Each structure stands twice: as C-alpha cells, then as structure tokens.
C-alpha cells in the first residue's frame, strides 16, 4: 500500500495539507502518516523515568501532541483511510528522511503559509530543507484546493536527461487522475548574460514518455522563469504545477536563489516538487527513535 507522510504543527495550513493528504489517500488507496516534532529535553531518550519527572514541560508537550493526534483521528473518523501517528524530537529533516526510508513513503504533503520571508513555512526553514532535499516527491499546499481532479498539470523543466526520473514520478502519480500534461520550458534572462540553451534537453523524449495521457509542448519567454511558470499556469487554469528540482551549488544559490523555493513561496496553487538527486550525506544525522 502507498504511504503519504504529512509533517504537521497542527496549524491551519498544516490542516489544509492533512485534508488534501486524506483525499489523495482515498483516490490512491494509500494510508496517511502524520508526524510532528516535539521539543523536549535534548537528552530525553537517555534520561531515566525518574529523571524525566524533573522536566514536566517535556511531558506536557508530548501530552499535547497526543491530544492533537486524537483530534486528527476524530476529524477523519468517517474516512476509509488508515491513519498512523508519530512524534519525535531533534533534527526534523533528519527524522523525516529516515522515516521516508523506513516506511517507504510515496509522497509528502505539507502546508505552507507562503509570504515573503516573514512567515515562509510552518516549521520555519526546516520545511524549506525538506523541499530542497527530500528524495520523495513533496506536494506543498497553501489553501484548500477547489478539487483534486488535477485535469491540467504543468511540468516545468529544462528537460535535461536528469529530469526524466522526476517526470516518471509525476506520470506514476498522475495515473489516478488521467490529466492533460503541459510540458513547459521558459526562456528567461540569466545572470551575467550567460546562456543555458546548450544545456536544454529534448522535450520530444518527454512526449514519448507521456503516451498514457494527452501531452503538449510549450515554450515561451518571460522576464523570469518563476513569472513565466506563474503566467502560463494561470492562462491554462492549471490544477497543479510540477517542477523537477536539481538543487544548486551554494555560491550559485547566493546569486540566484532557488526557483523551486520561489514558486513555493509565491504561487497559490498546489505545487509538486521532485528532487532529482539521490539521498546524500546531508541526511546523515544522529538517530532519533520515533514514538
């Protein structure tokens, strides 16, 4: 059975994501795993039961998390979806990455408050790290979508060879919705007058991969890639934007930032991000047991 993971802080936008995850689970015949991070004493796992009694605030936070999980179970009690709940402390992304591997997570659905750097994501910068580094597709939700039909999906990419893995993930996901897929390449000015045209891939190869669904190619220019994707999605009344996320070297990120993060921050419709990189050493953090 497919498994959908929802990292949550129980905020409004996290609840939007939870609703979407449960709706998707019914369509995809999947189960939903809710995870939250609980702030406790840093040596909590090493403390004896007697020593833990000296930190009542940690007990209270664990108790509050369990109550919130009970509320979620009550919210979805009439839905035909199996729910799994867990909490842990420590590094959020490290725990989530191990949970992905342990449970063979198919998809992460998470909420975002968007905004311009003031309230970027619930869980702060850690959620951005999940989008940047997760080796499982991540769907970001800001508002309750009107529907989950996903009849028009935009796949924005440079269509290099490395994007084929992400596109195949999208095609697997899209089987339940039989959408029209729009392959989109935006030509936009790049820093220092450099051109990346020689690095662009062959869109026809992606059309060949898309034999199960209607699929059309689109190429046009705009002042930036972010705005080009936004304008095209609005013009086509897209239900979902999917982007292949390569990540960037640190210096290049300082100069140009991340298109994926900009889209997540500024666009209102659901966004599906797919990281082309494999799990790497960035995830190698200390072990934290799930409770």
CATH H-level superfamily of the largest domain: HUPs
What is the fold named in CATH at topology level of the largest domain?
Answer: Rossmann fold
What can be said about the biggest beta sheet?
10 strands, mixed
The helix content is 25-40%
Succession of helices and strands? EHEHHEHEHEEHEHEHEHHE
Main sheet strand line-up: 3-2-1-4-5-10-9-6-7-8
N- and C-termini, Cα separation: 22 Å
Q: What is the highest CATH level, the class of the largest domain?
A: Alpha Beta
Radius of gyration: 20 Å
* SS elements, strand count: 10
State which percent range the strand residues make up: 15-25%
The structural domain count equals 2
Tell me the number of helical segments per DSSP (H or I, 4 or more residues long): 10
Describe the structure.
This protein has 291 residues and is an alpha/beta fold. It folds into two domains: 143 residues, Rossmann fold; 128 residues, Rossmann fold (3-Layer(aba) Sandwich), CATH 3.40.50.620. Helix content is 36%, strand content 21%.
Characteristic terms for this protein:
291 residues, alpha/beta, Rossmann fold, 2 domains, 10 helices, 10 strands, 21% strand, disordered C terminus
Please provide a brief summary of the model.
The chain is built from ten helices and ten strands. The protein is α/β, with parallel strands linked by helices. A ten-stranded mixed beta sheet has the order 3-2-1-4-5-10-9-6-7-8, sandwiched between helices.
């Amino acid at each position: 059975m497919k498994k959908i993971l929802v990292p949550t802080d129980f905020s409004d936008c996290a609840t939007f994501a939870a609703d979407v995850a449960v709706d998707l689970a019914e369509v995809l015949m999947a189960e939903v795993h809710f995870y939250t991070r609980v702030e406790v004493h840093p040596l909590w796992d090493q403390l004896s039961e007697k020593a833990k009694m000296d930190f009542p605030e940690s007990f209270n936070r664990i108790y509050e998390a369990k109550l919130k999980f009970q509320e979620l179970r009550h919210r979805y009690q009439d839905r035909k979806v199996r729910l799994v709940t867990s909490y842990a402390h420590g590094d959020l992304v490290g725990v989530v990455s191990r949970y992905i591997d342990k449970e063979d997570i198919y998809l992460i659905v998470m909420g975002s408050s968007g905004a311009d750097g003031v309230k970027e994501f619930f869980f702060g910068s850690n959620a951005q790290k999940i989008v940047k580094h997760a080796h499982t597709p991540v769907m970001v939700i800001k508002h309750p979508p009107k529907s989950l039909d996903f009849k028009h999906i935009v796949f924005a990419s440079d269509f290099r060879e490395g994007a084929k893995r992400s596109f195949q993930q999208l095609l697997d996901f899209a089987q339940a919705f039989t959408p029209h897929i729009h392959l989109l390449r935006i030509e936009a000015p790049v820093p220092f007058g450099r051109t990346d045209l020689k690095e662009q891939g062959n869109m026809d190869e992606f059309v060949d991969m898309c034999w199960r669904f209607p699929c059309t190619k689109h190429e046009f220019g705009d002042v930036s890639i972010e705005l080009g994707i936004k304008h095209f999605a609005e013009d086509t009344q897209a239900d979902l934007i999917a982007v292949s996320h390569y990540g960037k070297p640190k210096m290049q990120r300082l100069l140009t930032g991340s298109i994926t993060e900009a889209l997540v921050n500024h666009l209102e419709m659901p966004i599906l991000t797919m990281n082309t990189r494999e799990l790497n050493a960035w995830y190698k953090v200390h072990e934290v047991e799930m409770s």
